[in-house]
Amino acid sequence: MPAMEKGFSILIPTWNNLPFLKLCIKSIRCNSNYSHQILVHVNEDLDGTLEWVRAQEDITFTHSSQNIGICYALNILANQATTDYIMYLNDDMYLCPDWDTVLMKEIRALNHSNFFFSLTSIEMFPQSNCMIQGDFGRSYADFEEERLLQDYNKTIFHDWHGATWAPNIVPKELWEKVGGYSIEFSPGMYSDPDFSMKLWKSGIRLFKGISGSRVYHFGSVSVKRVKKNKGYYRFISKWGITNSIFSSKFLHRGQKHDGYLSDPEISFLTLLRIFPKRVMAMFQSG
Question: Which domains does the chain have, with CATH numbers?
Fold first, then answer.
């Protein structure tokens, strides 16, 4: 067989989720058409994850004795990325067939590297209008893999504005330009929209969700266990607007993709309405 063409550097932070991680890695190995660099950061390790990743010849890994969260983990892994594109993938996600072929086609259709793409998630209980509803199991124990492989692309969906959440992909040069994920949002809440805002401030106007590149998401397995930060107020304190305004007015999240985004006009009334939140953020964002 001819050697597979080089693909992406896939960053996966994991925290005592070995059964999910194994499924995630399996999906990369079985459902990819390119040769990807797989990088895993093992947080804490109470379930044998570290031993397992050490035994995998195709995984580059780092480890911390405590859970350092998503922001630190992603930045540590990104320092070891060897491809031109950095992809952030959660450990409770399963990549569907041809996910990378569709992404690479989108990337090569551009004549520049000023983009931020997200894959389209299939979830039992979709958290936004960017996602497809589909029930293929609540966890690794009842995951209906074969049925997913047959049905993942049967739902008609559209490319959408507002790429933010994982799985997402960005040129490595852009990742480095904006400094990766901001550690002040550790362990991770609101770090995704903050990263998107940093890209926006750097001039990026192509935030596109790719319908044909799909992933099954079991549903924020680690987030349900972690102690939350005050990312909501920290975002307001840092950027002067709420995440919801950024998502709706700037990114047009969930709307059918129809080209590059333009700078929004935020009305005085809108700014007046969020003024109390900006004041509260001064006291709540620490």
Answer: 6-220+252-257 (3.90.550.10)
